[in-house]
Write a structure and sequence with these properties.
With about 350 residues, the chain is an alpha/beta fold. It has 2 domains: about 220 residues, Metallo-dependent phosphatases (Purple Acid Phosphatase, chain A, domain 2); about 110 residues, no CATH class. The chain contains 10 helices and 17 strands. Strands 4-3-2-1-11-12 form a 6-stranded mixed β-sheet, covered by helices on one side. Strands 5-6-7-8-10-9 form a 6-stranded mixed β-sheet. Strand 9 and strand 10 form a beta hairpin. The termini are far apart. The relative contact order is 0.11. Bound molecules: manganese (II) ion. Manganese (II) ion binds next to loops.
Length: about 350
């Protein structure tokens, strides 16, 4: 039997900083539709959502109804863990619109299908006692679903010791937004990561995990409508704004305009080269654009410090007051750009 594990879709999240945020929110729902279509095409019998299907309070009725439609139309059985961000309202509404959806509570909830047991609980207080209450039959294929962190108790601790003592075949986790596997004794624990990247902080691959209960194996299926593409380019050879633009254009020519472009500049630049020029040329060409400026500026600090000018005064002030070399260089870089009237990136 095949099962899909997904999590952290965050439907209706505000997406602050994304210009076309409304379109992107619709694409998050489309991503869920695509997952449902994959399930349909591949004979997947169950879909497990390990928390954060909705971005809690932001979820609109229309989005909740759309999710209900997707689940209703699906041949698979859907298991939805809320994750403990605090607001259960959208999930309560989902249940009211969609009788098919299987939910969990603060006690262990077990769903048995043949020799498959899907079991989960919403993490909360007194979890240590709850771990003692977990009762799994080692003859089953036990899939346990939880939303929390494997290292920190700030948010709901996944107790690795307790997990490792249980006959768990697959631990489906949500909360961390990158796909990752962890071994807890013999137990395989997996964070599915996000279904679709929402911003530059979710730069890793997006998609979902497919588990085959017959073989016990699982695989990550990459899926993205848009993705974050990071391009790192050394711009040391640029002697003019146009040369800088050409070097960058060559480096990013393979990146689709549909994607989030995360441009990382490295190397050394003359201080009269304008990054603002580059940003203005490039930023409009992508769905979203972020510039990470890791360049160092080539200038003669002693010469600048000898100038009788506002610039010279600034350099002398930095030299007097900032001792740490890296901090001094960063302050000079930003300050000299500001004095030229450039926006600070
Ligand atoms: Mn999340």
């Amino acid at each position: 039997m095949k099962i899909i594990h997904t999590a952290d879709i965050h439907l209706d999240s505000p997406l602050a900083g994304v210009k076309q945020s409304s379109a992107r929110r619709n694409e998050l729902i489309q991503a869920l539709q695509r997952l449902a279509q994959y399930a349909e095409n591949n004979g997947v019998k169950a879909v497990v959502v390990a928390g954060d299907l909705f971005d809690d309070k932001c979820a609109t009725i229309q989005t909740i109804k759309s999710v209900a439609s997707i689940i209703d139309a699906s041949s698979a059985t859907w298991f939805v863990l809320r994750g403990n961000h605090g607001d259960s309202t959208p999930y309560d509404k989902l249940q009211s619109y969609c009788s098919k959806v299987m939910m969990f509570s603060s006690d262990w909830t077990y769903y048995q299908y043949g020799n498959l047991c899907v079991c989960g609980r919403e993490l909360g207080q007194n979890d240590q006692q709850q771990w003692n209450n977990l009762q799994l039959d080692g003859n089953n294929f036990n899939l346990v679903v939880l939303h929390g962190d494997i290292d920190s108790d700030q948010y709901g601790l996944i107790d690795k010791q307790a997990v490792s003592r249980q006959p768990i075949n697959y631990l489906a986790l949500g909360h961390r937004h990158s796909y990752a596997q962890h071994k807890m004794g013999k137990v395989t624990a997996v964070y599915s990561g996000v279904l679709e990247s929402r911003g530059f902080d979710e730069a890793e691959q997006s998609g979902f995990v497919v588990i085959d209960t017959d073989t016990g194996k699982h695989q990550f299926v990459e899926q993205s409508i848009r993705r974050v593409v990071t391009v790192t380019v050394d711009v040391t050879k640029a002697q003019s704004n146009v040369q800088l633009q050409n070097i960058i254009s060559d480096a990013i020519c393979g990146v689709s305009a549909n994607n989030y472009l995360n441009l990382v500049l490295q190397g050394t630049l003359n201080e009269d080269i304008s990054l603002q020029f580059v940003v203005e040329q490039i930023s409009g060409g992508y769905f979203a654009f972020r510039l990470q400026d890791d360049t160092t500026v080539a200038y003669d600090v002693e010469q600048l410090a000898a100038e009788i000018s506002l610039r010279g005064e600034f350099v002398r002030l930095v030299q007097r007051t900032i001792i740490d070399k890296n901090a001094q260089e960063e302050a000079l870089k930003l300050g000299l750009r500001a004095l030229k009237g450039e926006e600070l990136l």
